[in-house]
Fold:
Amino acid sequence: CFAKGTSVFNGIEELRVKESDRIKSMEDGLKPLGIKISSTKSSVKIAGTNSFKLNKKIKIDAKGDHRIAMSFYVLSQVLNKSFKIKDFNYVKTSFPSFTKTINKLKKN
Structure:
């Protein structure tokens, strides 16, 4: 979402049938932030921006998917904004030191 122009990802239909529909989950999380994102069955188009809607409490439903939770945690750190991420506890199963690792990277 920080890239200039529009990013298009094709051939990603398998992301619809993982722990969650990851394409829909990303759309549901990014649209309220003011990011223009659209999808088809097998593609996603994201318009780059550096202007985000961060004036309210941001709630993300990871839908039980640790990768969605991790993605939005990283975005929250980049934007320096606290997100309330539902099902974030699933991250501990796949990457127990995830937040510690990201916070260490952020300091560097």
About this structure: The beta strands are 6-10, 37-39, 43-47, 58-61, 83-86. The chain has one domain: 6-107. The chain has a mean pLDDT of 93.
